[in-house]
Amino acid sequence: MMRTWFLFFFVLVGCSCEEGSKGDAGTDGSTDGDTDADTDTDADTDSDVDAGEDAGGDAGVPMTPGDYGDPTQLVWAQFDGGTFLQGSESTVGPAVYAETPAHEVTVPTFEMMKTEVTTSQYAQCVLVEVCEEPMVAHGDTIAKNCNWLVWGRDAHPVNCLNVYEASSYCAWLGARLPSESEWEYAARSRGQDNEYPWGDAEPNCDLAVMDMDTPFEEPGCGLGHTWPVCSKPLGNTEQGLCDMAGNVKEWVADCWHGSYYGAPTDGSAWVTSPCDDNVLRGAYYKAPFYGLRTRLRAYNPSSGRSDAFGFRCARSLE
């Protein structure tokens, strides 16, 4: 565990943390092309000192993976297979062209994790030296709101990791990243015509960890960073999935394509080689209301890391 103790010392003395790949210095901490039109342009200079005792954590007190207690219980929700209309026909507003064309997809039966993977869950994989450690919080960089090694954030989603690291964790569980079709099918409660995971009601902080664009209030419903997973149960899907909108965006297995023309219709991931950019679905704690739509798509370099990026796992049942 020499690497872990070195990282612990590195955090104490201060570091110039890795900033991912091409363009990671984006003003919202994300490198995605963001067809989801996340328009926040703040310099992300808020302090985490006032994070709050129940949903925050103290970024000034570093820890090691061994400090994490037992992981949050892994809970899987089953989704019986079915056929649904993925995407939309809209070419205006935040939809742009990336959600087109709406196309019929038949998804086989699968399971998906109820929650985004938490820091305590991910730590167990790091401790057995299967998974790499994510970036740690530091200064006013894109790593500022990373949850790794921050006291009090064991139940927060693990973030600041790339798609390869996310995939490694899922493989360690005997699972995988979901396909984009599976993710949307689940977010829309088995493919219903839902604008948001909970239905069609406009997003607010009772439903999701988001940015209400309220003067003098931080994004993340006032905290300026993520919340513990499942903090907003009113925003769950019918099958009980938490945070399918808000908290962190989620890596999926698909390579990025600018539209659905040529996409598979059997629910599988659309993978081409090489895959320089991967799709991200869902929204994160800085997203405005229109960024929480179930059909919205974003992308980022596959090797990129940001406090906006997390994941959950899926596994096939057929």
Overall average residue pLDDT:
82
Q: How many domains is the backbone divided into? A: 1
Strand order of the largest sheet: 9-8-7-10
Structural class call reads: alpha+beta
CATH topology: paralog of FGE (formylglycine-generating enzyme)
Q: Can you walk through the features of this model?
A:
- The chain contains 4 helices and 11 strands.
- It is α+β, with helices and mostly antiparallel strands and 318 residues long.
- The protein has a single domain (1-8, 21-318), classed as paralog of FGE (formylglycine-generating enzyme), CATH 3.90.1580.10.
- Mean pLDDT is 82; it is low at 1-54.
Provide key terms for this protein.
318 residues, alpha+beta, paralog of FGE (formylglycine-generating enzyme), four-stranded mixed beta sheet, globular
Topology:
Elements: H1 2-13, E1 58-62, E2 76-79, E3 82-86, E4 103-107, E5 110-113, H2 119-127, E6 150-151, H3 163-172, H4 180-187, E7 249-255, E8 277-281, E9 297-301, E10 309-310, E11 314-316
Parallel strand pairs: 7-10
Antiparallel strand pairs: 1-6, 2-5, 3-4, 5-11, 7-8, 8-9
Short précis:
It is built from four helices and eleven strands; from the N terminus they run αβββββαβααβββββ. With 318 residues, the chain is an alpha+beta fold.
